[in-house]
Write a structure and sequence with these properties.
The protein is of the alpha/beta class. 40% of the residues lie in helices and 16% in strands.
Amino acid sequence: MVKIFGIEFAPLRVPYSRRLQTLAVTQYTLCFLFLGFTCLFFSIYVLFFTQYYYLMLLYLAWMYYDRDIAERGGRRSDRVRRWKIWDYLKDYFPAKLVKTAELNPEKNYILGFHPHGIMSTSAFVHFASEGSGWSRLFPGITSYLLVLGGHFMFPLYRDYLMLSGTVAVTKSSMNFLLRENGTGNALVLVVGGALEALEAFPGRFNLKLNKRKGFIKMALETGTSLVPTFSFGELNLYQQLENPPGSFLRRLQTVMTKYLGFSPPVFHGRGVFNYTYGLIPYRQPINTVIGAPIDVERIDRPNHAQIDQLHAKYLAALKELFDSHKEKCGVDPSNELHFID
């Protein structure tokens, strides 16, 4: 390892497997950050500046006809989910799924994923691919990672994204999967949302959950079991510029999130050829613990008291999951989980 001007450069000689792991995480990161807009600009170029514009017109017509598919279960491909590249992506950190209870294929589940982190990287690794062996650990259960509907507005990118089993995080989408798509569905919801990314700092466990009750109401209306899930290590993948509440940066980020639909954290990880600065996440172990399901009795029109009661039960189960596994997963025993507005 060579250090120049404070930057630690990667050695020239590293095992071939580690190079493949770095390639896999670089591919994932670049796709997450840039593939949507790359596909958009490519589509504009083909449409307006090439003789193949008619192909893009046909595709756009198909895209309009197919516009609701991300709210109707998507178009997953088990072959894509089992690509070897996802194994290398999992091994890069490495990332591991920890099972604490069985999930019954005769039922449906909403998995509350915490924390959001900068990019929710481990959520993709575990639930939008078979890199960590979801189907082997939970046979008969189909995972659906729910993401912002804006992702599916980008031509071409939307189709690639859906192959992983990713769908839109809308009420219509959740209703379809929980009411019309049979049983054995596990909807993975990153509950904290985009604003929680602004709380993503190593060693700080602040979850924006106090006012997040929409998923609780959905669980009650459909009689769907809730499964608290905590990903230890997600917060260690990047370093974020300090943005305390009330600061100019935090106010700017909050306004941008409101109008853009996604938060703009100022962060860095490591690079492909250095360990100090870049966009790809650090090599930090991730242990994602799947808690025991909380059975929910169906109530067609739950009132506020019933929603608040289940919400409190969910928060208590999540805190117990965190406390019982934090030391085993490398978290200082003195660290506490905090629920914020």
